[in-house]
Design goal:
The protein has 144 residues and is α+β, with helices and mostly antiparallel strands. It contains 7 helices and 4 strands; from the N terminus they run E-H-H-E-H-H-E-H-H-E-H.
Length: 144
């Protein structure tokens, strides 16, 4: 599902295999929408090793990457493009700290995750990473 272009900033979100496996995708998406963010594109897919390596390019040589690659390719994920005012910052606040054990209650990770690796969601950390990730996952989507 994709939508028309807009002038609002965009962010990429990946609802990871642990969230999909646990049936939390709807709850996660509802949090973004309840905050006023709009879904521009959404697609469920199995992430293969090549896409994982491209998405996590800056981590491929790190010690923690092989188990992360195994996890991210372990089942379906849901790729999402969101747009809205201060979307990158808003998504990161809603997601909470990367380590679910340390994430604040009321955040997605704080409410649903007890892990650093299986932490339910990924959100772009800057406009540059958002542009790169959106182009990687949704190359057919016109740029904003």
């Amino acid at each position: 599902m994709t939508s028309e272009t807009s002038q609002l900033p965009r962010s990429f979100v990946l609802i990871k295999p642990d969230a999909v496996r646990r049936g939390l995708a709807g709850a996660v998406l509802a949090r973004y929408e309840a905050k006023g963010l709009r879904i521009v594109a959404l697609e469920q897919r199995l992430v293969d090793g090549e896409l994982a390596d491209q998405h996590y390019a800056e981590h491929v040589e790190r010690d923690f990457y092989p188990p992360l690659r195994t996890f991210i390719t372990s089942g379906p994920s849901i790729a999402v493009v969101l747009e809205g005012d201060e979307v990158i910052e808003t998504v990161r606040l809603l997601n909470g700290a990367t380590d679910g054990r340390k994430a604040a209650p009321g955040t997605i990770r704080g409410d649903y995750s007890l892990s650093n690796r299986e932490n339910l969601v990924h959100g772009s950390d800057s406009p540059e990473s958002a542009a790169r990730e959106i182009a990687l996952w949704f190359p057919e989507l016109p740029t904003a």
